[in-house]
Design goal:
The protein is mainly alpha-helical. Helix content is 75%, strand content 0%. Keywords: Coiled coil, Signal.
Length: 150
């Protein structure tokens, strides 16, 4: 039962951790203000933002231990950043203030990913998307996160 709870928590962490960075990585000419806010509030939104990209793919990427370690490090850092901004976001007085907080958090998350040795934002997003569809990869990442968090 403990492993099942851990995997659920890791799955949520992966989705929630990827969401704010995914918003930052999108090159939209007309940004949707609500999208950034929803990614911090919704547990289902993160992996629904770009579902078509993997549906047509029959091949799955294979990640070595170093890549999984780097990804786990990035997830831990992003989760800490997200948690540090959660209270500030909830205390925001209006959508404009929420948007400013999200932009600040997204920039910090993006920088944190880039600081992890062997990780880029694009690589992080690809691995997060793969993990959402690959239970074995999710378990490998979860085990690394659990080990690193002890």
């Amino acid at each position: 039962m403990t492993i099942r709870k851990t995997m659920t928590a890791v799955g949520l962490s992966l989705g929630l951790a990827a969401a704010p960075v995914a918003v930052m990585a999108q090159d939209s000419e007309e940004p949707n203000e609500e999208q950034g806010i929803q990614t911090m509030d919704s547990e289902t939104q993160p992996m629904q933002s770009e579902p078509e990209t993997m549906q047509g793919d029959t091949e799955t990427a294979s990640y070595d231990d170093a890549e999984v370690d780097a990804f786990a490090d990035a997830v831990i850092q992003i989760t800490e950043i997200r948690n540090s901004y959660a209270g500030e976001l909830q205390g925001a007085s209006d959508q404009e203030e929420q948007q400013q907080i999200m932009q600040k958090a997204n920039a910090e998350m993006q920088a944190a990913i880039e600081e992890v040795d062997g990780m880029t934002v694009d690589r992080y997003l690809a691995m997060a998307e793969q993990a959402a569809q690959d239970e074995d990869l999710t378990q490998r990442i979860g085990a690394r996160i659990e080990t690193k968090m002890q």
